[in-house]
Amino acid sequence: MNDQLAERRRVVVLGSTGSIGQSCLDVIAHLPDRLQAVGLSAHSRWRDLFDQARRHQPRWVAVTDPKVADQVDRRQLDPATEFLIGEDGIAKMVTDPDVDVVVTAIVGSAGLRGTWLALESGKTVAVANKETLVMAGPLVMALADQRGATVLPVDSEHSAIFQAMRSGHRHEVERVVLTASGGPFRGKSKKNLVHVGPEEALRHPTWRMGPKITVDSATLMNKALEVVEARWLFGLEPEQIEVVIHPESVVHSFVEFKDGSVLAQLSPPDMRLPIQYALTYPERLPGPARRIDWRQLGTWHFEEPDHETFPALQLGYEVARHGGTCGAVLNAANEAAVSRFLAGELPFLDIPRVCRAVLENHHYSPRPTLRELIEVDRRARREVARWQTTLIETTT
Ligand code: NAD
Ligand code: MG
């Protein structure tokens, strides 16, 4: 092996068929001397997974839905690529000593196990799967610490904060400000949102993402989850985290230092940039992400979030303050509620409502184990499944 090849980072992409997964493979394809995809996983879209395998020639592919794995036509896979199934397949890839970086791009709390095992093996983990940090942030960060693993953010806001923070010491940070596009319903009142369905909620103005996070952006639950994510990733107090609506999605967050200096990270809304930064960190290399054209930039806007119309955001602050089991409960209730909303079973405005109800009624524990968190996650989902809508036409 020559020197250049020896420097290539060997990357496992969990959830490679999703929006983040595809962007990640695009970054890898643009930096063939530096990055190599050695493992890929998909839940059910095995044909897309096999197409990716043809292009990237990984050592392994894993299909995580065992029912789908039975239907796969393995003859379509290059014999040099090993076919793996389920969580055991994920475990085999992320714990292999030859793997350098694991990208967690699985959606929802299903991403927890792969993230956990990768950290346990001391890997560098590029975390897109924010749900894992919301659910079990303190345990995840403690595990990384114990095992000498590195957690790098992929979420654009957290990548921006991470990048800006490099120009000072942690104790010099006064606060961070997370930007939010405001989603497709920015400027609407609750009255306007009583009857909105999946089609309208899935029409995001600036980002192209998977369906769950797109609905989270419409409720502002995504920003609530990101407040909790920032709390654990950077060890910030909830009072140090603010949210501002910035519809153009060019300023990806900013950090204010003790002396009043504010540093921001700017780029067009293109996830390939924060993904690449995590994959090549601490180096910066030319890559495929779109660049800012100053001649095309118009005016940027910054507004206070509308807490009345989007009560989900406040839930994020409450969860960041209380910690314990709250993150797992909010995350699971939201996942279950979004899936019922997408199935046409739950009105849009019921998403934050059911999340609050489940959160307020759960048995709080301040220092849960991972097993307890998995149990409260299950219970919260059951509660949401039982929830009957009591939607009253709102007049606000
Ligand atoms: P997506 O729906 O496009 O893709 C999800 C991926 O996860 C797919 O590869 C799918 O096969 C896999 N998957 C789904 N259910 C699974 C299960 N039960 N077990 C194993 N794998 C499963 O989602 P996305 O938009 O790419 O988001 C992925 C993660 O990244 C989410 O946690 C999201 O919050 C986060 N994120 C996404 C963006 C974005 O721009 N899309 C930005 C920031 C953070
Ligand atoms: Mg984000």
Name of the CATH architecture of the largest domain: Orthogonal Bundle
Give me the number of helical elements.
17
Low-confidence stretches: 1-6
Main β sheet profile? 7 strands, parallel
Q: What is the CA-based Rg, rounded? A: 21 Å
Give the gist of this structure.
This protein is an alpha/beta fold. The chain is built from 17 helices and eleven strands.
Plain-language structure description:
It is a single chain. This protein has about 400 residues and is an alpha/beta fold. The chain folds into 2 domains: about 5-155, NAD(P)-binding Rossmann-like Domain (Rossmann fold, 3-Layer(aba) Sandwich); about 160-270 and about 285-385, Rna Polymerase Sigma Factor, Chain: A. It is built from 17 helices and 11 strands. It has helices spanning about 5, 20-30, 45-55, 65-70, 85-95, 110-120, 130-145, 155-165, 190-195, 200, 210-220, 220-235, 270-280, 310-320, 325-340, 350-360, 370-385, and strands spanning about 10-15, 35-40, 60-65, 80-85, 100-105, 125, 150-155, 175-180, 240-245, 250-255, 260-265. The protein has a 7-stranded parallel sheet with strand order 4-3-2-1-5-6-7, sandwiched between helices. Strands 9-8-10-11 form a 4-stranded mixed sheet, with helices on one face. Helix 15 (about 325-340) runs parallel beside helix 17 (about 370-385). The chain is globular. The relative contact order is 0.12. The model is unreliable at about 1-5 (pLDDT under 50).
